[in-house]
Amino acid sequence: MAGHKALRINGTRLNETLQSTCTQWGALSSSTGMRRLTLSQADKDVRDWLVKECKKLGCEVKVDQMGNIFATRPGKGEGLKPIAMGSHLDTQPAGGRYDGILGVQSALEVLRTLHENDVATQHPIMLIDWTNEEGARFPGAMMCSGVWSTKSSTPLEACYRVTDSDGIDMRTALDEIGYLGTTPCDYRENGLEAYFELHIEQGPKLEQEGKSVGIVTAVQGMKWFAVRVTGVEGHSGMSSSSSASPGITRWQSSSREPGTTPMPTRSDALITAALLISAVRTTALETSLGVATVGVITSDTQSQAMIPSGIDFIIDVRCPTDAQLAALCAAIFTAFDAIVASESNHTAYSVTRSWGLPESVFHPSCIAAVRAAAVAEVGELQCMEMKSGAGHDAAWTSKVVPSSMIFVPSKDGVSHNPAEYTSPEHCTLGAQVLLQAVLAYDGRTT
Amino acid sequence: MAGHKALRINGTRLNETLQSTCTQWGALSSSTGMRRLTLSQADKDVRDWLVKECKKLGCEVKVDQMGNIFATRPGKGEGLKPIAMGSHLDTQPAGGRYDGILGVQSALEVLRTLHENDVATQHPIMLIDWTNEEGARFPGAMMCSGVWSTKSSTPLEACYRVTDSDGIDMRTALDEIGYLGTTPCDYRENGLEAYFELHIEQGPKLEQEGKSVGIVTAVQGMKWFAVRVTGVEGHSGMSSSSSASPGITRWQSSSREPGTTPMPTRSDALITAALLISAVRTTALETSLGVATVGVITSDTQSQAMIPSGIDFIIDVRCPTDAQLAALCAAIFTAFDAIVASESNHTAYSVTRSWGLPESVFHPSCIAAVRAAAVAEVGELQCMEMKSGAGHDAAWTSKVVPSSMIFVPSKDGVSHNPAEYTSPEHCTLGAQVLLQAVLAYDGRTT
Questions:
Q1: Residue B254 included in any domain
Q2: Residues of A with CB below 8 A from B382's CB?
Q3: Whether the predicted interface score ipTM is above 0.85
Q4: Does the N terminus or the C terminus of chain A have fewer Cβ atoms within 10 A?
Q5: Number of domains composing chain B
Q6: Does B385 lie in the same domain as B341?
Q7: Which residues in chain A show pLDDT less than 70?
Q8: Mutating which of B90, B253, B270, B360 best tests the A interface, going by the most A Cβ atoms within 10 A?
Q9: pLDDT tens-digit profile of A46-73?
Q10: Does residue A351 sit in the same domain as residue A389?
Q11: Closest CA to A258 of B327, B103, B373, B208
């Protein structure tokens, strides 16, 4: 162990590699942001590059049935499982250069550092690039670490059938870019000793508290619900229902002209959706159980002259514990039921799809390894324990192998946006802590 | 006049022509609905057919600068302006076979009837097909009758620059299908004696009241506003603002974890939009001034893991009078200002575009001609005076020439939808009333 204490990653190389690969594969033209949707050409290109770089370092590379990439640097111990470092290379449609990418690039930098210093570890040391962490092209975030952990509610065959907005299914997309591998996507057949993930915080806490490193102890539970509200279509100048009773014949203009009375008889899906979306926030605020967000909304009609008959939206709910999550979700749908019942406008809602990630508590040994590495590097005052409000692949790995995470600061807390930024110094620091955490864990278990 | 009383249009020919041309040009494959967007290939094809049919009847055909088609059957009077019948052949993206189409096809059937019966009218009798009534491909409904009337707030050159969702401008689209004509699009240079428009009701009143013919006396005023709500983007697991004050350094997990407190500090554009959309309805209901609808809504983000930073929606407001319209619009924006001020979530709204059609009152002589024709055909008990809740080309023509409209029933009041339906009997009846109204007006003015 003593000999490793002085080992240092090459921060210049890390930052240059991160920036140049982003510039080459998936950069937005209008900003420093990224559009590297999973299994796209840009994702294939950066994967091909990654595999080549790992092979240069003498790593064995495997691709599993969901396209997850595993690059292993052998250890000297007999029959020991790998200690893995990983994250994801895919991004949101207009995301940044750090979310996920920093974790994979730092893992590569750790491998490069071990290689050029000829460090012999007890365990094999592994780099992992998880497929479709973002869920931006194929709905279902952290999809492929979820399949690997076998704890996700969506099994492999169901994931293969998930389609993007062009109707391309995931299996076809994997095959087309040459990453439909044969290694079983199952931790029981392709297992790990431990898993460490460096990630940007994607929130403002480290910056607000003036800290450099987050020692992540848990990931809060989260659920998504795809909701559809249905009403009755109609022309916006008219009533959309025929509840008015037939009147008396007359020549004179009726006082109940089209346009003056129909509002009360409408069955307007967007009005109901607006009330439900407002209730999502009100319920989260009033219960103080967690956060709930509606980010995506679409209307069946694209004409301003129509009363909308169908609205789809997605609710994202996150709470520190599964019990709080269940309570907040229940409170939201209780509020929905009350609104739909009281509106009596003949609209209805249904939940057409849901997805969830249970609360994850990281492993004490992994947390201890990260803490030791972080404190050794920057001292206690620059470190902070925290829970993650965002989901990560480590949440799934933690269900089946000892796992934990390292956070570095996000400027202004911004993520999933081209303005996402983490300084080169913080990127370097994160990679250095990752290296030392892995070595500490390797030393601990030998 | 006496000799014309017995003149009858050929209902079988009318309905067969209407159905067969819809089937050929713009029919949806999955229903009896139509997708004949203005200036599309389907629109070009039906226009070419219409021009050919009118020329077969000896009509002179002119195309104006906005692609409006004018087919004139000469009259025997010296220097008299034409009495016109018209409507539009374009449809919504998923519309029906009657909205607009019935009016043009019935005008053709009237010309055919006059031709085969060798009827000599005093005035020339004209068929008009107005370009882009729907405003579905190029925003701005009733666009080209508006230019012709010179009363629209959008002049010809501005209309030429309006683009569709593919970025094609209207002038290019007119040119590409060969309908960028040279006749001035201006009633002062290409004028009319009077204008009659047969249209489906697009509402449920005739059906509810058990009537066959609507004698339309006015079109209510309407305004559209494109509204943009802006907030601050952020990850849905996190706060999107940094209003929390720096806390005290500690090793233990803070009670103010990401995910438990950020709701109040968010600047969520969709929450504000939901409150505004709900206020649109509430204001319309409480004031009883008219109807107000939000049919189109889009979010900048397509990720459920994002707090939305920008929402666009369109408000459609309609009232019987311009004064009521102004009052309702003012009340809506007063409500908006109050919501944005009270929310203090740092969201804002702006009106990025607006469009309006002033209240239109039809001409007593034209209304009298329609009434005489309708009562002669079906008797008083089957007729009903009404105002139109939807905008029509006749609303613009009425600003500059005597105009009025004839309505026939819409099944269940449904329009702008493939389920739109008017029975063959009602189509025939409408065309017959149109014929007799035109002949009555021709007789009246000689």
A1: no
A2: none
A3: no
A4: N
A5: 2
A6: no
A7: 1-5, 238-262, 445-446
A8: B270
A9: 999 999 999 999 999 999 999 999 999 9
A10: no
A11: B208
